[in-house]
Design the sequence.
């Protein structure tokens, strides 16, 4: 699979050749992130921090809230790594500081060791210092304490002239169950497909920025043989993960979907591209494309507009239960009914004092509920009023789910103490929770 890369200097996306020569500017990093995140996780590297001449931390903190990012560059102590994981980074990439002692203090599955090799030997400090240690020895040493490796072939970085596949294979053999990501010199879809078949991912920057490789073709590269050698079944789901329908994709339609970030598929009946909603108005914003484990089916995650996905006007082609996402969409629609005095929901939107009163009332009633039936009833009431408050500010259920997901990713848990607790008591509770979280998440080995 492809891992698009965004390297940052002075708040801009850049591409360097062999880590030294500025080749091109990649524009606004946030725009690049929106473009690249269709493929999944995006690697974000703070070159200024890596070189010890500044930081893009504020920008990266905004980026990790917008899309799944693996963050690297200048992370040289455990607290900094934990700060990034708690800020929402999917994973952290540790370079110069990576050691068994360092990495074992972090949750293994969220740590990637950046092993930068120039002609097979490890280089550190922004690729400026040779260590004399072989890259395969380094991989074997760190494999028990990290979930992955970023193997950058520095002599090929930014050159778009190919890479050493034999070195990648040796790293795979030494890495065990840790995932290997290759970087440097990867330029073609054949490169990505070959790496995927071997069990490695491809981190790509220069080829995408220069236009030598399109993101759509890179996503499609690992696909196995399709139906009639050209069609792949594609499950379409919404932001809540509910399946909306089953359609078909070709390499051509996938390329168009990724480049336009829209729901674009292949019509078997007309044997042509089909842009969902072009005539009905029920358009789709493409958020992400995933390949299944066998590389013979696709999953599109979309933000569905209009009446729904199905040609019957329903949300999806299968019956879908009424859940929190459906309630959230209904409440968003009700915001426009503030003049309807017969609607209790409309009154809540137009009367902040009434909404506040109901929130406090229902929270108190839930706290006093005892039987399962009472708890169910009062929790439903409180959730309803909470979602009204969210919809009133334009916040969706998916926004809330995203926030909860980021909190779930935190390693250091917030102490659960009541307001008014003394600082020393809160700190003691925080220390206990953090130690417990590290043990549960696999750190502290």
Sequence:
């Amino acid at each position: 699979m492809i891992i698009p890369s965004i390297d940052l200097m002075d708040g801009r996306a850049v591409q360097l050749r062999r880590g030294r020569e500025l080749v091109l500017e990649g524009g606004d990093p946030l725009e690049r992130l929106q473009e690249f995140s269709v493929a999944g996780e995006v690697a974000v590297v703070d070159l200024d921090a890596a070189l010890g001449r500044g930081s893009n931390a504020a920008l990266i903190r905004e980026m990790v809230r917008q899309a799944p990012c693996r963050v690297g560059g200048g992370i040289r102590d455990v607290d900094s790594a934990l700060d990034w994981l708690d800020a929402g980074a999917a994973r952290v990439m540790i370079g110069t500081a990576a050691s068994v002692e360092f990495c074992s203090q972090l949750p293994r599955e969220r740590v990637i060791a950046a092993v930068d090799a120039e002609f097979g030997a490890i280089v550190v400090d922004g690729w400026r210092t040779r260590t004399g240690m072989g890259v395969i020895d380094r991989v074997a040493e760190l494999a028990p304490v990290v979930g992955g490796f970023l193997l950058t072939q520095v002599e090929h970085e930014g050159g778009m002239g190919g890479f050493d596949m034999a070195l990648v294979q040796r790293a795979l053999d030494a890495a065990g169950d840790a995932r290997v990501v290759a970087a440097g010199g990867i330029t073609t879809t054949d490169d990505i497909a070959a790496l995927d078949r071997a069990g490695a991912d491809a981190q790509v920057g220069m080829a995408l920025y220069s236009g030598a490789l399109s993101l759509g073709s890179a996503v499609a590269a690992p696909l196995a043989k399709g139906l009639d050698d050209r069609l792949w079944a594609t499950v379409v789901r919404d932001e809540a993960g509910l399946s909306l329908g089953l359609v078909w994709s070709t390499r051509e339609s996938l390329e168009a979907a990724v480049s336009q970030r829209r729901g674009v598929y292949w019509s078997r009946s007309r044997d042509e591209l089909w842009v969902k909603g072009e005539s009905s108005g029920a358009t789709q914003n493409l958020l992400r494309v995933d390949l299944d484990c066998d590389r013979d089916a696709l999953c599109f995650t979309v933000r569905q507009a209009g009446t729904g996905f199905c040609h019957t006007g329903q949300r999806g082609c299968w019956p879908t239960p009424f859940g929190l996402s459906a309630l959230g969409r209904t409440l968003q629609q009700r915001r426009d009914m503030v003049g309807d005095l017969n609607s209790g929901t409309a009154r809540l939107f137009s009367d902040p004092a009434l909404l506040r009163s109901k929130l406090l009332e229902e929270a108190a009633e839930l706290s006093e509920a005892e039987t399962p039936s009472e708890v169910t009833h009062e929790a439903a009431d409180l959730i309803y009023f909470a979602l009204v408050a969210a919809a009133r500010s334009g916040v969706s259920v998916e926004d809330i789910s995203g926030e909860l997901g980021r909190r779930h990713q935190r390693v250091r848990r917030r102490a659960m103490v009541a307001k008014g607790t003394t600082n020393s008591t809160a700190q003691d509770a925080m220390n206990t929770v953090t130690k417990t979280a590290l043990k549960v998440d696999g750190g502290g080995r």
